[in-house]
Amino acid sequence: MKNISIRFPHNKDLNFIKTLRARVKDHFETSNTTKYGNASMVWKTIAMLSIYTVPYALMMTGVISNVWLVLGLWIAMGVGKAGIGFSVMHDANHGAYSQNPKVNKYMGYLINILGGSAINWKIQHNVLHHTYTNVHGMDEDIDSGIILRLSPQQKHYKMHKIQHIYAWFLYGLMTFLWITTKDFRQLYRYKKMGLTKNLKNFNITLARMILAKVVYYVVLLVLPIMLLPFAWWQIVIFFVSMHYTAGLILACVFQTAHVMPTTQYPEPDETGNLENDWAVHQLFTTANYSPKSRLLSWYVGGLNYQIEHHLFPNVCHIHYKKISKIVKETAEEYGLPYNSHPNFFKAVWEHAKMLKQLGRATA
Predict the structure, then answer these.
(1) pLDDT for 66
(2) Which long-range contacts (CB under 8 A, 24 or more apart) does 340-345 make?
(3) Where are the domains of the chain?
(4) How confident is the prediction for the chain on average, in pLDDT?
(5) pTM for the complete prediction?
């Protein structure tokens, strides 16, 4: 990671975001609605948590014991795991779930029961990704080490020529990194970068992270091995299936928002300045998809409206569809891009094309 010395110009293109914010503010005032979640968010939270916890309860209590049905329950848990991440934890850690900071805080901790870390998430996602979207060396979402080339500025290796084939297998491994080494490596790296200064005590934070991982392994792996009527290796297969399902879903949803042929990878000049201001930068580096699919939008927490999310991360995703019309019209009015793909499958296909393109040495 680079030192954080990259800057956005403050005297350019500001009329766009001023106009847009004024129009979105007027939308909420005239419709007499809050930018936070409402009852529908509460019901969604219950639904997502149920998809994750009910299958666990059904097999642990012996209600379902058929090996293939139990495998299906673990896969369902993977779907629920991703759904909680998209639709609940994500909004909470952006402070958009509720106007009560404590509610956001504790709902944000739900990532811990998924095997991740709320503290690391806020730094990687809220600070680095949302600020320096698609900027090589700053946005960790496009940094998968040497095995994948997700930006044209990244060093090219011969294996990248077929990354559009093997990337999908690697995507499924995403959440395995959460539960093994990634969170610990990130925490120490962020400390070195000076991004953990708001933590009251680094050692206590580290101890809590270790404890959370231990509890996670005990509940999701040790207890099933001890109590379920299956061999230990079968439980491991179930556990892997859950994580692989969640990882593949999460990766496909997030990668199709930024690693696309229609998005750009801005580079700062020699003084560290980027060309566009922050808001315009988001339009050039982000893409939407499936604007008409209510079911997909419900499940992925409105992240198919990724442009709206990046411009208004503190607005609950249940409002994205309505404000998307305002964002699109304002962008077009200012001659700015508004990248949107008609459906999720088209977005995945375009992402695959981008992986192939980036796999070339000349990309």
Answers:
(1) 96
(2) 340/287, 340/288, 340/289, 340/291, 340/307, 341/256, 341/260, 341/287, 341/288, 341/289, 341/290, 342/289, 342/290, 342/291, 342/292, 343/289, 343/290, 343/293, 344/256, 344/289, 344/290, 344/293, 344/296, 344/304
(3) 14-358
(4) 93
(5) 0.92
